[in-house]
């Protein structure tokens, strides 16, 4: 019976060895830093999306608050049970 695949460890160690090589003084490292840039158009789209989501979310919250305070909001027990079943399935029975 094979428990661990030890052949995979060598692949990781070769990368580690390259990083552990001491650099001599005066020797430049040619490593580039990672960069990310987001265009102005993408930023505008993101901000517009956030504004519409916030407005829709605020409307839903206000609607729920008014229904709860009026006593007209009722929870569908079947939908609630369907959402809870996966949570309880993760625990083994005692």
Automatic annotation (TrEMBL):
Residue ranges constituting the Anti-sigma-28 factor FlgM C-terminal domain according to the UniProt record: 34-85
Chain intervals for the UniProt region annotation (Disordered): 1-33
Entry keywords, A to Z: Bacterial flagellum biogenesis, Cell projection, Cilium, Flagellum, Repressor, Transcription, Transcription regulation
Superkingdom to which the source organism belongs: Bacteria
Compositional bias segments (type: Basic and acidic residues): 17-33
InterPro entries: Anti-sigma-28_factor_FlgM_sf, FlgM, FlgM_C
Protein's UniProt keywords contain Transcription regulation: yes
Any one GO BP annotation for this protein: negative regulation of DNA-templated transcription
Any one Pfam family match given in the protein's UniProt record, by short name: FlgM
Stored NCBIfam families: FlgM_jcvi
Family under the similarity heading: Belongs to the FlgM family.
Protein name: Negative regulator of flagellin synthesis
Organism of this sequence: Paenibacillus solani
């Amino acid at each position: 019976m094979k428990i661990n695949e030890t052949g995979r460890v060598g692949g990781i160690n070769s990368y580690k060895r390259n990083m552990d090589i001491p650099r001599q003084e005066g020797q430049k490292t040619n490593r580039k830093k990672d960069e990310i840039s987001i265009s102005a158009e993408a930023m505008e789209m993101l901000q517009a999306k956030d504004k519409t989501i916030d407005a829709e979310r605020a409307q839903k919250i206000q609607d729920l608050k008014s229904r709860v305070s009026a006593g007209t909001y009722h929870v569908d027990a079947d939908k609630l049970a369907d959402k809870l079943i996966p949570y309880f399935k993760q625990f083994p029975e005692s």
